[in-house]
Amino acid sequence: MNILWLQASGCGGCTMSLLCAEAPGLFDTLDGAGLRFLWHPALSVETGEEVREILRRIEGREVPLDILCVEGAIARGPRGTGRYQMLAGLGLSMLEAVRRLVPLAGHVVAVGTCAAYGGMTSAGGNPSDAVGLQYEGAHAGGVLPPEFRDRTGLPVINVAGCPTHPGWVTETLMLLAAGALGAADLDRFGRPRFYADHLVHHGCPKNEYYEYKASARVPGEIGCMMEHMGCIGTQAVGDCNIRPWNGGGSCTAGGYACIACTAPEFEEPRHPYAETPKIGGIPVGLPADMPKAWFMALASLSKAATPERIRTNATADRIAVPPTLRAPKR
Fold first, then answer.
1. In degrees, to the nearest 5, what angle opens at C-alpha 284 toward C-alphas 281 and 286?
2. Residue 325 included in any domain
3. What's the number of CA atoms in the CB half-sphere (13 Å) around residue 93?
């Protein structure tokens, strides 16, 4: 299957993340699944007239376009022309290029939250009028209308993340190559459910502290970051702590709060990322499935039952009190 990859308005971080695919690496994975790049702006050697020829052959249907991947939001400005971002040498805006290529593609994949929903590119007043492929924030309808479906009946597949996990991209592409990704395999925001049916909270190395509501207060402390430091891993979709990044890491494992970068409109949280908004001392963002009254009751009990080891370690920058070693029973 042929992949054409376009980089629209963004930082290129999703491509950088994709190159971190390991065991096997990116190109071995694609080769094994029968996938190849027709062109990728950062990874392909073709440039200039060679790229124009590739696009001409796609538009002439001489070469099948099986998967169109778009990384980055689409700038619609100024005034709907899309001319804030032009494809060099073609006299064609990225907006117009996407609209021409989408009808020719077997599948359309938005790589990263910018391409999916607008993401960071649309933050701060959005002067370029940037938007996702099929969503504007959490609202259906972006460059493509809400009713858009590809030839197999799928909407745009939103492999959201900022940047997105390399495994999410390669697994999506392999499922498409195998004909094994259907509409029921996407959640209501078009994200593949193989990672979107998980919460970042699942497998978090700070879960013991979360259970007792033993909280970190400042960066560097190893306790749970939900109560004071803005972590919303209990609400954010992603298997980041189940399949670690780069073989062993994640945001929360590194001491950084989860900011729900797979979600629409995460770029405008209306409060500092590293602070937990509260009303009357109660965190506003609670676990997605739990009533507030239950959470507060359980939190009070948990804090009262917190072992001294966990209470002490939560506000330390390393393990200060090791687990108690019990003598074996005789």
1. 110
2. no
3. 17
